[in-house]
Amino acid sequence: MILKGRVWKLKDNIDTDLIYPGKYLPIIDSKEMAKHALEGLDKNFPQKIQKGDIIVAGKNFGCGSSREQAATSLKHAGISCVVAKSFSRIFFRNAINQGLALVQSEKAYDLVEEGKEIIIDFEKGEIILNDKKIEFAHLPDFIKEILDSGGLIPYIKKKLEQK
Q1: In what order do the strands lie in the sheet with 54-57?
Q2: For position 152, what pLDDT does the model report?
Q3: What are 28-68's pLDDT values in tens digits?
Q4: Can you give the residue ranges of every domain in the chain?
Q5: Whole-prediction pTM value?
Q6: Burial of 91 (0-12, 13-18, 19+ CB in 10 A)
Q7: What span, in angstroms and rounded, lies between the C-alpha atoms of 34 and 31?
């Protein structure tokens, strides 16, 4: 899988309430959720996101509550991947389950600029920005399969159909 997108650079400790504010928890439609992605950080942020955009963040992205709506809202808003120095464990699982790609990289945050375009090559384990390549640890094959399927539920349905 290769992703290409414009960078939104966010700081450390972006919690789930900044990603998807609690007042919107009653919303269950993913398209409606997308209209509130990162609204806790900037109320106009949802209108700025374009399909394929990539978030590059500092440490502890997705900390806070276990709300899966945070990952769901980002994916359906058009974010193709989140690159961060580190992730909250629960957010990481929720994102993979929703089919939102993640990359953990200590180096990327300091090297990328907001608004610039980067390429993420999951097979090579590289983030490419201009003439620089930043290596990252490969995701396990089963996680890549979940992402390629669009999330955990489509992955399981596909597996059940194969039986």
Answers
A1: 101-104, 81-84, 54-57, 2-9, 117-121, 126-129, 132-135
A2: 94
A3: 999 999 999 999 999 999 999 999 999 999 999 999 888 89
A4: 2-138
A5: 0.90
A6: buried
A7: 5
158 φ, ψ to 5°?
-60, -45
Cβ neighbours of residue 23 closer than 8 Å, sequence gap 6 or more: none
CATH assignment, 2-138: 3.20.19.10
The count of other CB atoms within 10 Å of the CB of residue 18 is 20
Using 50, 70 and 90 to split pLDDT, how confident is the model at 131? confident
Check: CB of residue 130 under 8 Å from CB of residue 147: no
pLDDT tens column, 108-117: 999 999 999 9
